[in-house]
Amino acid sequence: MKDRMAPLIIPIFLPAIGCRERCLFCNQKALAGELPSPLSVRNFIEASLPALPSEAKEREKQIAFYGGSFTAIHRDNQVSYLKEVQPFLVSGLIDSIRISTRPDALDEETLSLLKQYGVKTIEVGVQSMIDEVLLLARRGHCAAHAVDVVSRLKNKNFEVGLQLMIGLPGDTLDRFFQTLDRVIELKPDFLRIHPTLVLKGAPLEDLWRAGEYSPMPLIEAIQWLKKGIVKLENSSVSVARIGLQPTKELQRDYLAGPYHPALHQLVDSAIFLDMATSLLQRFQENGQAIFSCHPKEVSNLRGQKNENLLKLKKDFNVSEISIEERQELPKGFLGLQTREGEVSIDRKSLGS
Ligand code: SF4
Fold this sequence. Notes:
Elements: E1 8-14, H1 28-32, H2 38-48, E2 61-67, H3 75-91, E3 96-101, H4 108-116, E4 119-127, H5 131-136, H6 143-155, E5 159-166, H7 173-186, E6 190-195, E7 198-199, H8 203-209, H9 218-234, E8 239-242, H10 248-253, E9 254-256, H11 263-283, E10 288-293, H12 298-302, H13 307-316, E11 320-325, E12 333-338, E13 341-346
Parallel strand pairs: 1-2, 2-3, 3-4, 4-5, 5-6, 6-8, 10-11
Antiparallel strand pairs: 7-9, 10-12, 12-13
Helix pairs in contact: 2-3, 7-9, 9-11, 11-13
The chain binds iron/sulfur cluster.
């Protein structure tokens, strides 16, 4: 469930030109393409503005420098890029700037520079809060860096997003949960979580080809994410995205791992399957089931190609399942009609 109104983003992808070493999983070309010039950034913004959706007037509009670690590139380059955005901020065509970077590239001087040029949102690649996982991923920083930087960003009133990964070497479900516990304590404004993929040219490709790394199967990634998302929702931490954006570069360089362009929806469908299963385990009657949910949740209940409904029919020997769409029901709720009336379940209860 996305519970925050996300800004409209014009993304500008930068390669990892400032990173001293390459992280195990990083294929900067797959993730970012070639280095743009500041002028091309301005041209890109001008060309992108008319293409924003019709509701743009009411929504916050952000320029986002993604891909590499923005604050690890040379200071002059950072300033050049930020300067190109200033006329759009002054004219009101753009409301704010976001950058993504690594936890150990945000010293006080850098934060002052970002404030000065109107950066509002900083996404920090934390990946894991387990030092052994970070070491194996060749991140070059430890969990303490993330703790320190989040508190400094919050003190300076930046909006803070954290990026996490699952399925890195040395990662386990228990370690993912430890990571979530520590991240929840940090109270970020939002999270992004994506599974580890093997990309062409990333150091991880060598390990994978040598049989020393096995990517997580998609079904396992969905199970981890399902439990993680419910835990986060119970902690009121917003999840902005699950899974990487399906860019053409990613599709070109993807080799292995749990990639799906609609991963978030698969996770939501898995949550709804658990909710429906819980209701039918307790209240299944006479070979039929009538569920009710918000209209926007029907596809989550059905699952891709109706696979949730087919599984429920088989597991509970139900011949017919119908779904009532009810606008007044809150998202995240599922109702089931019984002889005694309607019973319901909230997705948050799966975490208890
Ligand atoms: S910090 Fe980010 S951009 Fe730099 S090498 Fe690691 S994953 Fe790539």
